[in-house]
């Protein structure tokens, strides 16, 4: 995923009310930027850290910028939760994820059961439903999800389990927007219900694919698939 418009550099002053952040631009101006991440952003918030913002396309929007990334320990961490779905969609269409290659039709936001699944991919012999989650939390070498309790995330896992019961391929795809982690694991201590349901889903045949991406001010690109562990 390439940033079509040049990003604007600044420094994080604070994040507040979940969806707002004060940013000091390089020219000394302080602006309010929209934060798309509704989670705790644990391990990717550091006041005084470098950030990049994207200018809003809609001139009528109250916040003129969207917060895209923050530099933590010398590396960029992507904090815009709207990007992973697009990253996954483009990667699957282009065959950039080995385990999800070979599909000729790829569609976003497809309703199934009581939920909308992020991506449906099809070819002549199978249909695959793929739910995408954004991961930014770091714990030693582990990337962990979620960073806050997510009943919606649990519901999506239950929908993937139902699809597997019908014989349909179902995948939980985690897009990890930081390069300083090597293993994916659920955050048992934050949301034990989600961790339990993820393991149940895996045992029921739902595939788990954690993909680490490289974030920089020009683009976000696929790096590699990471191994995962499900036990606490």
Describe, in plain words, how this protein is organized in 3D:
The protein has three helices and 15 strands. It has helices spanning 83-93, 151-165, 192-203, and strands at residues 8-16, 20-25, 30-34, 50-55, 65-72, 75-78, 105-112, 115-122, 127-135, 137-139, 142-145, 169-176, 183-186, 207-215, 220-225. A hairpin with a 4-residue loop joins strand 8 and strand 9. The protein is of the alpha+beta class. The mean pLDDT is 95. The protein is globular, with a radius of gyration of 18 Å. The protein folds into two domains: 8-77, OB fold (Dihydrolipoamide Acetyltransferase, E2P), CATH 2.40.50; 83-225, Trna Endonuclease, Chain: A, domain 1 (3-Layer(aba) Sandwich).
């Amino acid at each position: 995923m390439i940033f079509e418009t040049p990003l604007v550099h600044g420094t994080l002053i604070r994040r507040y009310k979940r969806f707002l952040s004060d940013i000091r631009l390089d020219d000394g101006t302080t602006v309010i930027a929209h934060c798309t991440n509704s989670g705790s952003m644990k391990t990717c918030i550091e006041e005084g850290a470098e950030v990049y913002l994207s200018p809003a396309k809609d001139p009528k929007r109250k916040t003129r910028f969207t917060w895209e990334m923050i530099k933590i320990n010398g590396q960029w961490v992507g904090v815009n939760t709207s990007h992973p779905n697009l990253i996954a969609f483009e990667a699957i269409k282009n065959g950039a994820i080995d385990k999800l290659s070979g599909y000729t039709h790829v569609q976003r936001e497809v309703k199934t059961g009581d939920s909308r699944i992020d991506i449906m991919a099809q070819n002549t012999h199978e249909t695959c439903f793929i739910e995408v989650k954004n991961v930014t939390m770091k714990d030693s070498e582990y990337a962990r999800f979620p960073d806050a309790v997510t009943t919606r995330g649990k519901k999506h896992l239950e929908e993937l389990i139902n699809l597997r019961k019908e014989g349909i391929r179902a995948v939980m795809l985690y897009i990890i927007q930081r390069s300083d982690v090597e293993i994916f694991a659920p955050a048992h201590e934050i949301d034990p219900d989600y961790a339990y349901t993820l393991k149940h889903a895996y045992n029921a045949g739902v595939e788990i694919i954690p993909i680490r991406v490289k974030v920089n001010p020009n683009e976000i690109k696929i790096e590699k698939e990471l191994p995962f562990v499900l036990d606490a």
